[in-house]
Amino acid sequence: MKVIKLLSNFKLIVGPIVIMIFLELTFPYFLHKIPLYLHAAIDSGLLGLAQTSKRSLIPDDYILILGDSNAAGIGEWFNESLNDRRNLWPDFHTAHILHNKLNVDVISFGGAGAGNLMNLVFSPITQFKYINSFGPYNLKKPKRILVIFDEGNDITDNIKELFKLYLNKFDKDRIYDQSYFKLFLDDVFQNNNPYLEKSNRFEVSTSSLKRLLFSRFLYKGIDDLFYEDKYAENHQRVLNKTKIHKFKANEVSRYPSGYFANIALVGSEKWVFSNKNFRPPIDVIEDDIKLGIYVFEQSLLYASEFFKGSKIDIVFLPSVTSSYQLLTLEDSGSGLNRLESNYSYLAEIKESEIFLVQEVKKIAEKHGFGFIDVRQDVRSASKSQIIHGMVDQNHFNEVGYHVFSDSIINQSDYLKQFVQ
Questions:
Q1: Separation of alpha carbons 217 and 43, rounded Å
Q2: What is the pLDDT of residues 173-192, one digit of tens each?
Q3: Domain coordinates of the chain in residue numbers?
Q4: What are residue 252's phi and psi, to 5 degrees?
Q5: CATH of 34-416, one of 3.30.470.20, 3.90.1010.10, 3.40.50.1110, 2.40.160.40
Q6: Whole-angstrom Cα distance, residue 319 to residue 155?
Q7: How far from chain centre, in Å, is Cα 53?
Q8: Contact assessment for residue 365 and residue 358, using Cβ atoms and an 8 Å cutoff
Q9: Distance of CA 174 to CAs 156, 167, 179, 180, 276, Å?
Q10: Taking the complete model, does pTM exceed 0.70, yes or no?
Q11: How many Cβ atoms are within 10 Å of 191's Cβ, its own excluded?
């Protein structure tokens, strides 16, 4: 009886251990089968492999998308897909659209809330190296790279990142010395990689715990349950913010001065967009704009050196403010033109936009990169329909992402050959 009891206890102990070992061994091969709503529990450095815009776990001859939150697919389409549990592997952004239309593998290393230093250098290169540090994975360099330049916030984010990483240690008088700037990037990579520090990413990357992907996935998933209510509360707070709404002349007096700076004509109706939306850097001094463009160029060159052999196309993305036909207060019929004017504001928006397009195009031509300008297609679509989120106005909705993706395909001879 004692032997039987000991065997029974032994099974209770060994059984779960055997199951955990099995799950640890098999889990790395099924990251792309994990539902979208569980992606937050996956090791963030491996999320590229969890994406479903490819034919298998490891993409082959793939397109890599780099950039900010637009490259990552943030927006109301993503939010709706995340909350729809009927579809565990939904489409929600450019990578999925390109994959479906071209039948090629597409992944994104895009990231929200950062500039080009992070999204073209530290984030993609670190993720690429991290993925290949795992035995089961052999991720080759991409066939093509789409670099999204965001007119709305790349310049300001670049300045913030540069001042944070550069000024404390490096000579500001040598900032335009390209060789010195490359040394700065090399040094940050070695000693102060912001991608590793953000949210304590890869805190176990140098220990044996790194290999325990399933255990860490399980722990993170359970831990996240305690924050779900907090997330729902924050999400509801976002939803309560000002939405895009139809303009009503009889309600003008209810709003503060400057509220109606962005009245857009969509179809036959006038819509009021937030005056806090992203826009060209009209409030940034000329020297800082020049510096922000320089940071973009040097970040892109550093990435192109690492991903040598990959063809690069720069995609110029207009901000939401530049994507619609904005009306002067006089044309809007608000009657506010008797008290204030937005004419110079709209002129500055246009002037800044044209300048940025020209500068980014010069960079593409100078270094042999492709250049794709989606502004015409975006504006053509916005004449008849709203293509951004009603609340999250800085990112495309589902229609907008399709317009954006179709424009990229139609302007790329390389991509057009794959159209199904």
A1: 7
A2: 999 999 999 999 999 988 88
A3: 34-416
A4: -55, -40
A5: 3.40.50.1110
A6: 12
A7: 15
A8: no
A9: 21, 11, 9, 7, 35
A10: yes
A11: 8
